[in-house]
Write a structure and sequence with these properties.
Length: about 220
């Protein structure tokens, strides 16, 4: 064995280690270390499992809270729907009534409107002595003269008898009828000269077709409007 000569050599020289413990004590020491390591692993596992449990418990609690909130919202919506049931019933009733009115007025012609329009448009040298209205296959509303039947594509006919000063006034009368919305094909069946006292006049009869645009349902408001 070489003996170190200087302090540096003493510092760098490895000192031999001698284990004086019996082998049984060394084995017991190693076993305690293993036990300590296993205990640490068990504690760590418990900590991890506890964290997972708390997280899952928090998640379940949040889900239950959301479910309760959703159920409360659904209950509120159901109450709102029940409160609106009366409004929906009333709306449906109104829609039904409007549909019935529309159906009832589907074939109605407001003749009074057309008579008023005619009165505003009749030439100053023309006077009407009778007006007959025929709608569809129904009989004329007046029997003072034979009524002309409605032409194909029309829903009725208006027949007129009147007096004018000249034949040109009769032509002006027919032209005035073309300007009334809902009228079409104005014609005359008679235009003959006559006299009233010492004044010469023209007796005439004429007719005009009433088109579907004259139906009253054209101005009936739609349901929900």
């Amino acid at each position: 064995m070489t003996i170190p000569q200087t302090l540096e050599e003493v510092a760098t020289t490895e000192v031999p280690r001698v284990n004086l413990l019996p082998p049984e004590l060394a084995a017991a020491e190693r076993f305690r270390r293993v036990q300590a390591a296993m205990g640490g692993l068990v504690v760590l596992a418990l900590v991890v499992v506890g964290g997972i449990y708390l997280h899952e418990r928090s998640t379940v609690s949040h889900a239950k809270s959301q479910l309760a909130s959703t159920q409360a919202d659904n209950a509120n919506l159901q109450r709102s729907l029940r409160s609106l049931a009366g409004i929906r019933t009333a709306y449906n009733a109104v829609a039904t009534e409007r549909a019935l009115v529309t159906e009832a007025m589907a074939s109605e012609v407001k003749w009074s409107y057309f008579i008023n329009d005619i009165a505003l448009r009749i030439p100053s040298n023309v006077w009407l002595t009778s007006i007959q209205a025929t709608q569809g296959a129904s009989a004329p509303t007046s029997t003072t003269a034979s009524a002309t039947a409605p032409a194909a594509g029309s829903i009725g006919t208006l027949n007129f008898s009147g007096v004018a000063f000249r034949h040109n006034d009769v032509a002006s009368w027919l032209d005035a009828l073309t300007k009334v919305d809902g009228f079409a094909n104005p014609t005359f069946s008679k235009s003959t000269e006559a006299a009233i006292g010492n004044h010469g006049v023209v007796d005439f009869t004429s007719s005009v077709d009433v088109t579907p645009s004259a139906l009253a349902h054209k101005t009936t408001p739609a349901a929900g409007g």
